[in-house]
Amino acid sequence: MSSGEIAFIDSLRELAVHPAARGLTDDAAVLEIGGETLVLTKDAMVEGVHWPPQQSLTDVAWKLVAVNLSDLAAKGAEPVGVMLGYALGSDDSAFLDGLKAALESFDVPLLGGDTVSGSDRRTFSLTAIGRATHTPVPSRAGARPGDGIYLCGSVGGAMMGFEALTGTGRADRTPFTRPTPLLAKGCALSPHVTAMMDVSDGLLLDAWRMAQASKVTLSIDSTAVPIAAPESRRDDALRWGDDYALLFTAPTDTALPTDASLIGIVHEAGATPLTLDEEALGDPEGLGYRH
Amino acid sequence: MSSGEIAFIDSLRELAVHPAARGLTDDAAVLEIGGETLVLTKDAMVEGVHWPPQQSLTDVAWKLVAVNLSDLAAKGAEPVGVMLGYALGSDDSAFLDGLKAALESFDVPLLGGDTVSGSDRRTFSLTAIGRATHTPVPSRAGARPGDGIYLCGSVGGAMMGFEALTGTGRADRTPFTRPTPLLAKGCALSPHVTAMMDVSDGLLLDAWRMAQASKVTLSIDSTAVPIAAPESRRDDALRWGDDYALLFTAPTDTALPTDASLIGIVHEAGATPLTLDEEALGDPEGLGYRH
């Protein structure tokens, strides 16, 4: 990320003055309205940036829905509906097929949207609206020293799927092309966690962000991380994104309602936000995928 | 609009199965949640399509906010907040200036959003969330035979402003560059109207759409339409968009809470959805700006 991009995002954060607004420091905005707590997410996908040319538009549409619902999952929110922003191009029917499949699979309605024409590159954006099932809604900022660090799901499967799609790998492509947001698990976990986020940009980078937001140090044991990749690719799996596992912290004596792996411990803020196998990882560069 | 685009939008409408979903046949989605009625809009702006090169990004940002809030105004909804989708480019600070000015002017918070990089053309999208002040929320579909057709605001000002911005005209550019959504008027009108929409794509085209949605014929008297342009440009003013006036229907004996001009009468559905000075306008082609 360039310094200009960082400055822009910082300026946006300053504009987000609403007390309930966490959308620019977190993956979703939380809004109290009419006795309900709504969670709103917005994710865009740009051609040539967010998917490889080998990926079908059907799968791109699925993924657009899945990544937004994954942000809801990390907030313990049930989806209420989605709004689509769509730049018309060719192959629109392939996109529709994937959109329809994802909406049916995740049982979420399309509420509305906007279509525009004239864009050179396809750009799709989705806003997902969810209803929090538990308050306070989990954020990235609640990890406390002494908490365990957990991963629900695994990492590396999307990497293997990507390599199969774009190269000569023979692994299952589905984890990359058609990820599944952990909606039910996110809702079940939300009353028990101190912090939670989905792993979209790489486990280490996302853990680094959680540590920064929580003002603590996260110490991760690399061998404890469940990976869906050969052992020889463990290092890569910790840095690859797109897996949509749930990274969370909770007191280690918590009876968790769903399977999750203890992958480390939260410490008081030390010299760096993140350690891996007791080695400091202070610089987020190289820890994951930033976009 | 090409036949492919129309087919795509029709397919999207079929996907929008939620009973409350009106977003793809209307300008906004209406959602009942927690005893409140939320109104959600989504509008995107693409470089080279939705603004001329002479328009500053500061004004583009303002307009992005204004057009979404105008959709809320037509629903009688108060803004709760907006979510921004932003493809990073250069001149991002100019965009931020306009965004900040619009958010302050309309007293609406930025709740969150997503930034992406790598797009060739700037593409901005905004989702606005509003709270309906009156239910049922006005739609395009409620115009009834015998109702008066009214315009709150005027048309043609944006056309004159555009010509001043891009050519040699000397008119005030503000109606084009910095339109003002009629939020307070929309809220005041919403209990009294049978149908309402904002005039974003041209009065005649938008009236044609209202007639189609309501299954009636709208008969408009061109000389009764208030225009913010020279009389010699009246025909153009009725077809130009971007004015964000409110077009609505109501019984002619209604005591309206705000100034509005009676510009025609709703009839039973006839041979064409729209007549102008008693002449049938059956084909929407040429009635306005379609995007």
TrEMBL record, chains A, B:
One Gene Ontology MF term = thiamine-phosphate kinase activity
Q: Which residues bind Mg(2+) 5?
A: 201
Domain spans labelled PurM-like C-terminal:
144-250
- Name the UniProt key words of this record, in alphabetical order: ATP-binding, Kinase, Magnesium, Metal-binding, Nucleotide-binding, Thiamine biosynthesis, Transferase
What InterPro entries does the record tag this protein with?
PurM-like_C_dom, PurM-like_C_sf, PurM-like_N, PurM-like_N_sf, ThiL-like
Instruction: Quote the catalytic activity from the record.
Output: thiamine phosphate + ATP = thiamine diphosphate + ADP
This one is known as Thiamine-monophosphate kinase
| UniProt organism field | Alteriqipengyuania abyssalis
